C-alpha cells in the first residue's frame, strides 16, 4: 500500500509542472512570434495511462533482494586447492626470481673484476707500446743520423777518388814523359 501512495504522489507532482508548462507555452508562443531568433520547443511530460483514466502500476514495486547463499551454491573444495597451488607456484616463481637476480649480481661482480683486470692489462700494453714506439723513434733517429754521416763520408770518398783519378792521370803522364826522356839522353 505504501508504494502505491508514493507512486500516486509522484503522479500529482508530475501534473503540476505540466500545467505550468501549458501556461508558459501560451506566453512563449506570443513572445516567439515577434523574435526571429526564438525557437519554439515544447515538451510534454504527461503519463499516457493517466490521461485514459487508468492507474498504471509500477512493474516492480520493491527491488529484488539477492538470495542468501545456499549449500548448493558453495564453492567446491578443489577450487580452494587450485587457488592455493597457484599461490604456491607464484611464491616459488618469486623465490626463483630472487635467486636468479642474486646469481646475476654475483656474475656481474665477477665480470666487473675481470673487466678491471683487462683494463689494467690494456693499460700496461698501451704503456709498453708507447715505450717501444719511443725507443723505435730514438733508434730511427740514430739510424738516420748514421745514414747522413755515411753519405757525407761516401761523398768525401767520391771527391777523393776523383782527385786520385786526376793524380793517376798525372802520374801516367809523368811516367810517359820519363820514358821518353831517358831514351833521348844516352846519346
TrEMBL record:
The chain crosses the membrane at residues 78-104. It comes from Rhinopithecus bieti (Black snub-nosed monkey). Keywords: Membrane, Transmembrane, Transmembrane helix. The keyword Membrane applies. One of its GO terms (molecular function) is identical protein binding. Signal peptide: none annotated. Residues 18-73 are annotated as: Disordered. This is Mast cell expressed membrane protein 1. The gene is MCEMP1.
